[in-house]
Amino acid sequence: VSAPAAIKLPHPVLLAPGAFDQIGLVARTVAPNHRIVAISDLNVAKLYGRPITNALRGADNEIATPGEFVAFELDEKRKTRESWANITDRLIETGYGRDTVLVAVGGGVVGDIVGFVAATYMRGIPFVQVPTTLLAMVDASIGGKTGVDTPKGKNLVGAFHAPAAVVIDPTVLGTLPQQHLRAGFAEVLKHGIIADATYFDVAATFIGASQLNPGPVPPEMTDIIRRSVEIKAEIVSRDERESGLRKILNFGHTIGHAIEAASEYHMLHGECVALGMIAEARLAERIGVATNGTARAIESVCKAAGLPTSFPQMNTDLLLEFMHGDKKAREGRVEYALPKRIGEMAGSESGWAIRVEDGDVRGVLAA
Ligand SMILES: NC(=O)c1ccc[n+]([C@@H]2O[C@H](COP(=O)([O-])OP(=O)(O)OC[C@H]3O[C@@H](n4cnc5c(N)ncnc54)[C@H](O)[C@@H]3O)[C@@H](O)[C@H]2O)c1
Ligand SMILES: [Zn+2]
Fold it and tell me: How far apart are CA 362 and CA 171, in angstroms?
């Protein structure tokens, strides 16, 4: 992605149908004379093991450093310290040194774990993100947050470690289960809501036309991914350590994460974010921050995308408990990133976070 002049990408992003073939070339370019280890989960390895291996080998026989491809059994329950330790130990046992570049091929789970291994391996080695879910393409692979979950909560252990490059091949979305494609659109819509009303409309039109049906990926998908990458990259590059502006990326996530935890992670992240965005937009309307109709507009596009829009039966006390336990909570009070309207966030004066009384949150969740 070559961003418009005003946007500084925090790391190079190669986005194109067929970019998968360039994985080895990109790794060699950003980390010359390094040994390459590509790491994936079993699903992705089954589908793409051969193209990955071919891409690592490279077309060019002069290349003296063929990459190795290893697939680990990873899933959401395994974004754990144990997975981090297993991968790390295996690299140590195989004798990989500081001159190693890791290539994370997979969804956000693979990206987060492999990124965290790279952040800590021998005090930090380069890595390349090759996101294969929509959520990872438009969100998780951009910005350099890496980490693992603990039994007490998600993403509690981690590091900021920016990838040396990100390689995005939209055609691999053709094999992504529809539920995951839909979940990824929650983050696409979030980017429109927080930064670009036109993009929100473009995404809504795409959803209406394609119905997000599985199968060959329409060319417009590349443009949708590009704009999301730009929006996230711009926000992150202006605030790499989440002291201010980056908080707007949390829109929908304070309530969304609580729903995710209360569902014991049976619901997908994007599904919970959709519900969180609807609830937080209602909250913003209730306290007079957002224009009336903002929540309804979000709800209607989420519905069209096949995302959940009606709230599961959940204990409000439990949800609030999760929200207070959230590491974004300050002094036991809960702050939210709230919209003014589609395309614009509120709270530029207060560091993009607005403190809201639990009573108002209860009111919204009860409605
Ligand atoms: N680092 C960040 O900034 C950031 C941001 C958002 C989310 N995340 C993290 O991302 C994780 C969720 O990521 P996710 O939604 O990508 O889930 P995931 O990594 O679990 O992938 C979803 C499923 O799709 C499979 N899959 C991946 N690519 C495929 C393809 N092309 N075809 C078929 N199947 C494929 C995977 O094997 C998995 O079963 C969470 O742990 C979340 O915390 C991180
Ligand atoms: Zn998210």
Answer: 43
